[in-house]
Design goal:
Order of helices and strands: HHEHHEHHEEEEEHEHEEEE
Radius of gyration: 20 Å
Number of strands: 12
Distance between the termini: 51 Å
Shape: globular
Strand order of the largest sheet: 5-4-3-2-1-12
Largest sheet: 6 strands, mixed
Length: 298
């Protein structure tokens, strides 16, 4: 009898988890504005007045990774730079193998990628100028944009620290910086993420292949950033996270009709399509390269 009870209990828990995920997904469906027909879609497409089916393909090759938890917890800065080179080299090799003649367009790395091990922000934080030349060389070598997350020392007196992600362009120039607007709260701590200064806006960056926004980990629980990026025309949102997320990225991708590319230290990294489905994923430590089409429209 007890065996049967445990069996049904496990089935019930699985059912409840699935029902919860479906409820969040349906909430995203309900939030999508309804369109009355091809005429309205055509009007929203802009002055070109082309239907989605008539648009030229806009193929973009994105790379992401599951970095391993040792990286964000233990590795010194120099070893992180080496790991960055190794990961992007692996992505480039995978791109050559699976997409001959194509080069990487966008690389997304894990939250806290550029930091040091330590107990305080003062010990963990990195100034951009300390590593900028190395990141620039990596981006320029592979001719790709790179989203590189930092515990960033912003300078000043007293010093300010941000949970940030730097976007490097194909030529190794800083194209922009996103600072996490929603630092993680913890009932055991007085400060948000040991004293991180929250960001104040949600920029969208113009890349040569399209418009890119960035969100970081705990931002996933707040709708404001995802809405702001959509209003500014983001076509890809890079989600750098310390923990894997699945249901909420699916919902936001569906609700706002953009692609989301996640990178994490463990378990799951993925590309979500504007339908809210996982187009490609990796569930083990390593890299993944996937081609998306920004002419995709619903």
């Amino acid at each position: 009898m007890s065996i049967q009870f445990r069996y049904h209990g496990a089935r019930l828990r699985r059912f409840m988890a699935s029902a919860s995920a479906m409820a969040v997904w349906l909430a995203g469906m309900a939030a999508i504005p309804q369109r009355s027909g091809a005429g309205e879609i055509q009007q929203q497409a802009g002055s070109a007045a082309t239907l989605p089916r008539d648009r030229l393909p806009r193929k973009v090759l994105v790379g992401t990774e599951v970095s391993g938890y040792d990286l964000i917890l233990k590795l010194p800065l120099e070893m992180r730079l080496q790991r960055m080179d190794e990961l992007v080299d692996s992505m480039a090799a995978q791109a050559t193998l699976n997409y001959p003649g194509k080069q990487l367009d966008l690389v997304v790395l894990t939250e806290y990628f550029m930091s040091r091990p330590g107990d305080t922000l003062e010990h963990k934080a990195v100034r951009l100028e300390e590593v900028q030349s190395r990141i620039a060389a990596c981006a320029k070598s592979h001719g790709c944009y790179m989203v590189v997350p930092f515990i960033l020392n912003e300078g000043g007196s007293p010093a300010l620290y941000s949970n940030a992600a730097v976007l490097m362009d194909r030529e190794g120039r800083v194209a922009g910086i996103y600072r996490k607007v929603h630092p993680c709260s913890d009932l055991k701590e007085v400060l948000l993420e040991d004293g991180m200064t929250p960001g104040r806006n949600f920029p969208v960056f113009d890349c040569d292949f399209g418009k890119v926004g960035i969100q970081i980990c705990y931002d996933i629980f707040f709708a404001d950033g995802w809405q702001a990026l959509a209003k500014q025309g983001a076509e890809i949102v890079a989600l750098a996270s310390e923990t894997p997320e699945t249901v909420r990225p699916s919902m936001y991708a569906l609700q706002h009709r953009y692609f989301i590319v996640s990178a994490t230290p463990r378990d799951h990294a993925a590309v979500y399509s504007p339908l809210g489905v996982v187009e490609a994923q990796t569930t083990q430590e390593g890299v993944m390269v996937h081609q998306i089409d920004l002419s995709y429209a619903i």
